[in-house]
Amino acid sequence: MRAIKPIAVIAMLALTVSVAAAARIDVGRFSAGDLTGWKEKSFVANTRYAVQTSGGQRALCASSTAAASGLFHEIRIDLRKTPLLNWSWKVERGLHDKDERSKPGDDYPARVYVVFSGGFAFWKTRAINYVWSSAQPVGAIWPNAFVSNARMVVVETGSSRLGQWVTEQRDVLADYRKLFGDAADYVDAVAIMTDTDNAGGSAAACYGDIYFEVAGALGTEPD
Length: 223
Hints:
Layout: H1 6-23, E1 24-28, E2 38-44, E3 48-54, E4 57-65, E5 68-78, E6 84-93, E7 108-116, E8 126-133, E9 141-143, E10 150-157, E11 166-171, H2 172-180, E12 186-195, E13 202-207, E14 210-213
Parallel strand pairs: 8-10
Antiparallel strand pairs: 1-14, 2-5, 3-4, 4-13, 5-12, 6-11, 6-13, 6-14, 7-8, 7-12, 9-10
């Protein structure tokens, strides 16, 4: 039996690590308490974000009272290689009875959104907001009440899963094509936000790890 030379073993190990790294790209490693690269953007006052343990899971938890600020991470994701966005979240409170499709009702206990930059054509910057809705049905889609280039996509709704960890997966490449009618090769940022500045009241939610991965078992697409 021919012995495998050490240099060949090293090369094979390097290739294995490279392939594994390319198969998954971490955006938020909240379970490790890692907030590297995340920055805050405030719109009205400040939602409080802190790493803590909730429901047996270490996560980034948010608490908002008449506030709207989010955390964003500028990171370039090649959707041709890793189109699947994965995350988990848990909403404790924050549902309301106003129309979320209107400006007075544009609040969500939890949202995860991806941003697609238009480069120098800044007016072409677009965003997909994956939201936990108060009352709209899962699969509902509408333009954001304040920003015409953003689309709201309901992936969870109502109180039936309140207080429970829920895992989500979206094919962002397919979603973008369906929502905007053309293709997007790259994501330029990912953000989370728990906000209560329009509908009033308070909200609390936690966000688990966020990552992109190669195509495999696909999640649902917008209707």
